[in-house]
Structures are given as C-alpha cells and as structure tokens.
Amino acid sequence: MKAAIYRRTGPAAEVLSVEDVETPEPGPGEVRVRITGSGVNPTDWKTRAGLTGQDPEDFQIPHQDGVGVVDAVGEGVDTPAVGERVWLFLSAFGNRYGTAAGYSVLPAAHVRPLPGDAPDELGACLGVPAVTAAHCLLVGGSGDRGALAGRTVLVAGGAGAVGHYAIELAKHAGARVVTTVSSDEKGELARAAGADLVVNYREPNAVDQVKGFTDHVDRIVEVALGANLELDLAVAGAGTVIAVYANEPDDPVIPTRRFMVANASISYVLLYGVPDDQLRAAVAWTADAAGSGALSPLPITRYGLDDIVAAHEAVENGAVGKVLVVP
C-alpha cells in the first residue's frame, strides 16, 4: 500500500515521504480499515516535528483520525463487521499504522460505526476534535452529559475544530452556548454551529457582552488560558469549571486567590492520557451525537497523499477548518 511515513522527526519537507509499504494484517482484537479520508490535527504535526516525543522505531505513518471501510478483522472481533463504514480515533497512538495510508490497522475499540447518511467528511473530522470537546464538557463535573441541560457554556475559539464540536455537543445536551471568536468570518462559522451568542474577544466590551447574556458561566472550554484568563474569571463563579485543552508558548500565571474567591476550578485535558472510562464516555457521546445528526463537518481543505507535506504545513500554519488527506 502507499503510505506517508517518517523515520525521524523534523520539518515536514525534510522527513515526510510517500512510499510503498507492506499492507498490515490485523491481529487479535484489531481491525483493518481501508482509508477514504485522513484528518490532520495539530498534534499530528507536532508529533512529526518532534515536539511531543522521540523518533519512531523504523517508521511512523501519521494521523490519529480518519474514515473508511472495515476491510478485515482479527481474532475475537465481532464488531465492527467487514464492509462497515467507520470513523477512527487515536489510530497512531502507540501504533505505527496511522491513517495517512491506504489502510490502517488498529484496536477495534478505536473504531466506531459511521451513520449511513453521514458523509466521509464528518467521519474524518471526529476523533481528536469532537472527543476532546466531549471530554472538556464532562471533565471536572458529574460526568453526566444530561447535567448540562439548562446550563451556560462558554466556548473560546468557536470557529476552531474543538470549539465547533464543543458548541454542537453542548447544544445537543441542552445547554446555552456563548462563544468567542476573532473575526466576523469566524463568527459566522460559530453561528452555523449553533452558538446562541457570538462575541469578538478583540472588542473592548467583550466581557460586558457575555455578562449581558448571563451572569454566570457554568463551564468554559478553553483554547488559550493565558490570553483569556481575565475574561474567564470575569464571568466565572461558584462551580465554574474551565477545561483547558491547548497549551501556549508560555505557561500562564494562575491567580490562585481569585480562583478560590470565585470557587472556580481548572481541569487540564490531553486526550492521550484520559482514563479509559472517561474516554469511553466521551467517545460514546460523540458517537450518539453523530448518529442523531447533531454534528456537522468542519470546512474541508483536501490534499492528495502525495501532497502530505503541504497538508502538514497548512495545519502548522493555522488552517481554518479541517485538512483532509485522501489516499
């Protein structure tokens, strides 16, 4: 099969290549999926660049997320069945066969059915963005998505991948959603996702706009804690949980006393270290929401497998929406 691979970490143009590699066979508890779309996440290029780990042993096929059709199953696998359309998550986590290839072999537990009328574009957008969003909405609370009904959620960066699904999942759970964006164009994307109020955080009265909508935010899904800390604390109160899923060049200084006075808390989210039971809960909610039609694809930019370098560079440069590599 053809696959994008790297044998050492570094800049995309220096380490990524497209080569013929042997098509893998599924082992016990594994499935093989013929990939029809491979989603690229920021963690994919950061891992390839060497920012999150070491060089791979022999080679690594990148990308955690994807969509495709089950081609073969290993011993002990009852579901999914051969021929079933599926979406994949954490495909390259502890596994050299990520989704940037003709086929991926991965644990059956990391594969979920894709609803029959859902496009491939949606399946490739799930995984890291949507499951991270679901966990951010659950972590630090009761873990019950039903507890969000009637609550108010603030999503920082509502036009981003995680932000998009945080809006849709929160609305799916019955919450009211405020989101912050940096431009009118991004505001339209957030409104299309279902946000009740969209605020440009660059405007001087951003805090007043949020406070005019609600006097208390129950949960904040945060992409830039340091940059948004003042706004977050201005609308936080007793029981507010700020779920932080992205890091920044410099660690922010946390004003402990202000958090204590507000009785608010911070939960940090890195999907690759989430406990199994919490990961299963986030995946189950994502799958349910996708099955009910509550989730929509991000704006898609397509690249062929031979353009893998350009695809990685696009994500590294902050492409809006989802970069999709089509093998």
TrEMBL record:
Residues 12-325 form the Enoyl reductase (ER) domain. Residues 21-44 are annotated as: Disordered. The keyword Nucleotidyltransferase does not apply. The keyword NADP applies. SUPFAM superfamilies: GroES-like (SSF50129), NAD(P)-binding Rossmann-fold domains (SSF51735). It comes from the Bacteria. Keywords: NADP. This is NADPH:quinone reductase. It comes from Actinomycetospora chibensis. The lineage of its organism: Bacteria, Bacillati, Actinomycetota, Actinomycetes, Pseudonocardiales.
